[in-house]
UniProtKB/TrEMBL annotation:
Catalytic activity: an aldehyde + NAD(+) + H2O = a carboxylate + NADH + 2 H(+)
Enzyme Commission code: 1.2.1.3
Annotated active site: E247
Protein name: aldehyde dehydrogenase (NAD(+))
InterPro entries noted in UniProt: Ald_DH/histidinol_DH, Ald_DH_C, Ald_DH_CS_CYS, Ald_DH_CS_GLU, Ald_DH_N, Aldehyde_DH_dom
Organism domain of life: Bacteria
Species name: Micromonospora mirobrigensis
Alphabetized CDD domains for the sequence: ALDH_CddD_SSP0762
A Pfam family reported for this protein in Swiss-Prot or TrEMBL: Aldedh
UniProt lineage: Bacteria, Bacillati, Actinomycetota, Actinomycetes, Micromonosporales
Domain Aldehyde dehydrogenase: 16-472
Gene Ontology molecular-function annotations: aldehyde dehydrogenase (NAD+) activity
Classification via Gene3D superfamilies: Aldehyde Dehydrogenase, Chain A, domain 1, Aldehyde Dehydrogenase, Chain A, domain 2
Alphabetic keyword roster: Oxidoreductase
Enzyme class, spelled out: oxidoreductase
Amino acid sequence: MNAITTVNQHFINGQFVDSHGQEAIDVYSPVTGELIGHTLLGDEVDAERAIVAAHEAFPAWSKTSLAERGQYLQKIADALEERMDELISVTVAEYGALRTFSTMFNEQARQFFLLAKDLLRPENFVERNGDATVTKVPVGVAGLLTPWNGSPWFIAGKAASALAAGATVVIKPSQNSTLQSRVLMEAFAAAELPPGVVNIVNGSGTAVGNTITRSPLVQKISFTGSTRIGKQIGRDAIETMKRVTLELGGKSPTVILDDADMGKAVQFALTAGLLNTGQACIAGTRILVPEHRLEEAKAALKAGVEALPIGDPNDPTTLIQPMVSASHYERVQGFIRKGIEEGAEVLVGGEGKPEGFEAGNYVKPTIFVGVTNDMTIAQEEIFGPVLSVITYRDEEEAVAIANDVEYGLHGYVYGNDVERAHAVADRIQAGRVMVNQFFDDPVNPFGGFKMSGYGREFGIYGMNAYLETKTVLAA
């Protein structure tokens, strides 16, 4: 992307419409710092127009047959496939995502619509229970508020579930992903859904986000983002009794059991901790290591991090990408400084940018040792390539440390005895735990315990979040 891209329209009621909001933002390359785009952010008027369009489209869309919805979901998937190369490239340019990662999650974004299509079976919507007919009916207008760390993936996952359920949607992407949103708008337009079924408004959380979450015409909110914002959305939603799904922050533990092959365990821990260069809610940023194997773990971790290639996200050999923005780079630097101030030891990495990468938003992959679980870097979500090594004496203490955090989104366990590793995973307070392998699963439920939110996404669980249950009793 050498040319400057301008985004000054939203997708409302089946059309591209000029932004009423006039707040202008510039988009800079995370890799070079160069200007790559301009965006006009929407305001309350744009958001209200989108909400009204979705509200007016809902009665007809909610009555479409399962076959009709399936055809539209297929059309969206086809439209994304036609734009896949552009979507991958713009994600790399705007977000700084590795091309390999961008390819994976954008292709999975397309797959979400096909998976949702497969759920459109009568038994998922109607059942007989004695003298009762229990039906699941669309909730209404759904507001979908999505983050920047994989924007098309989050939008697709939520929108596919909502549309399959028969809900209409108003989408507010992160303002850090407006160039990606433009491509998605074009895909939804090409799919030729009825006007108002899908609406996308770029804008801030204050102007557009608050308008959506507080509108009496919106019956459902699905939000992925920080716990602080999630709490505010929950407070706003209760005023109009909105149904809410909140997928919030995480501070996931990676528990390396004492029988583990340390080389393999460290590779697993680095994969979990540095996923998306740490810009992931599921990142395993607390590595729990048996006390008597600490030196072995330190040597393996140091060698592993020093071998990670930092560079251009378009280079297939690159494994460490830049942070999404200069402000986010500064946020991560603040946590590194805080770790040093609180007495943790830098094993590898530290403050500043890697040598040769001063132009972009690159952070040195950093591992702290000598960390206690009460330190800031062990308790707060950093959202960057900063990992904390915490030692434990026995399995009971490992589980206690793993659970001694306000979050409960994800966890990881690695050990030679698979049955024992599963038993430890069962004791971790998290919505999802991976044992001995790292993979994604877009079918089974995903969501958090504790301050990581509530509600579940993916598969039938995600679609059910946009359905209300109705019982009709007849003698």
